[in-house]
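[Automated response] Your request has been received and processed.

Submitted sequence:
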Amino acid sequence: MKRVMLTVAYDGTNYHGWQLQPNVITIESVLNEKLSDLFHEEIRVIGASRTDTGVHALGNIAVFDTEARMPAEKISYALNQRLPEDIRIQNSREVPLEFHPRHQNSRKTYEYRILNREFPMPVYRLYSHFTYVPLDVERMQKAADYLVGKHDFKSFCSVNTVAETTVRTIYTIQVEKTNEMITIRVIGSGFLYNMVRIIAGTLMEVGRGNMEPEQITDILAALDRTKAGPTAPACGLTLVSYEYEDGIGY
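Generated structure:
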């Protein structure tokens, strides 16, 4: 028996998120099916991040156990021949049997992209959120700075969130604009359900002038989801990478 780690990239447009759900196609269900077919044994992957419907990834992490003799580093090649074009394995390697992708100290990087121009651009519609209302990036960055550090992010997660604690640590948030594309890049130790999308929605409210940057401290202190901005649409969000303390990751 060996445990294999996969670095998985995908376009989430056509999937109902990562996690297995009845009667719908998810990233996890496709991986389970194709791996089971490849090795002629029942395979069930364990994912690091259970991304939502429509969310994309450049480097989500999954592990699975197998009795197969195929070298772990060759599995990515064999599996990619069976996967649909919108899912691709970027790397496969053997890890210790006790390695669990959600129970390790790690740094996770997400990016939320906003196309900010007068009219939508069709080629970006699946990978960014469009708004024609001008956004002030400097105000957004000032607001984002209040979120850096260790805080209780209860105001920035879905009311349906199930977690032992809503305290998380954000290492950095950068808000940058290149031409007409604004990118919010968030690096943290972990994220709650819808946390990055709610952060993005709140920063956009600041960028529109509907909130002041200094209000972020009050929103954090309120521990009340209704005090933060709306949940930004899923299409703008991409899980960029996972980096584990031992160097494992994309």
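Summary generated for your ticket: The mean pLDDT is 95. DSSP finds five helices and ten strands in the chain.
If you did not submit this request, please reply to this message.
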